[in-house]
Design a protein that fits this description.
By secondary structure, this protein is mainly alpha-helical. The protein is built from 6 helices and 2 strands; from the N terminus they run βααβαααα.
Length: 177
């Protein structure tokens, strides 16, 4: 809520009811009791997490089923794809991936610097992109110097940044859980 101080978040408003004799005459106003408008909410914490809504549960199980359905497809890919491939838009692929990483790093940094909790989402997505980039760099590099460069970039930049982003995301999620 706008205008609230940080210390007032999560507090409930308290009702003040006047008795008949206090509201009947002006003399009752002189002896009115001052009662704070805010006090700590003292609701017992649930012992277990609330059950997600039916639609969320269904979506979750649908995602699990889709993931399991991909497992046989992995075998088809592993045994059916050629060892080499020519890619028409190779530069666009790598520029696009690195541009998404840069956007993710900038967004994560700006959101984290502002104290915005949404930095956890950007950090998780950016960590994923960085790990994918490290993997693809290493797996598509030619043997020798190209592979050594890809490995150095993965170990020296991409994976450490991915670990930092992952840590930021996990810290934010554990703090607000």
């Amino acid at each position: 809520m706008k205008g609230r101080a940080d210390g007032e978040r999560g507090k409930t408003m308290r009702h003040l009811e006047l008795c008949k004799d206090e509201s009947a005459g002006a003399e009752g106003l002189g002896r009115a009791e001052v009662i704070p408008l805010h006090e700590e909410a003292r609701e017992p914490r649930p012992k277990r997490e609330p059950r997600p809504a039916r639609g969320v549960r269904r979506a979750g199980w649908l995602l699990v089923a889709c993931g399991l359905a991909l497992l046989p497809w992995l075998y088809v890919l592993a045994t059916g794809l050629p060892a080499t491939a020519t890619v028409a838009h190779w530069p666009v692929l790598w520029v696009g991936l690195d541009a998404l990483e840069a956007l993710g790093l900038i967004a994560t940094g700006l959101l984290a610097a502002r104290g915005d909790r949404r930095h956890a989402l950007a950090a998780a997505a950016t960590a994923t992109l960085l790990v994918v980039d490290a993997w693809f760099d290493a797996m598509t590099a030619a043997p020798g110097g190209d592979f050594a460069t890809a490995l150095a970039m993965a170990l020296g930049a991409e994976l450490p940044l991915a670990a930092l982003c992952g840590r930021l995301a996990l810290r934010a999620l554990s703090r607000h859980a």
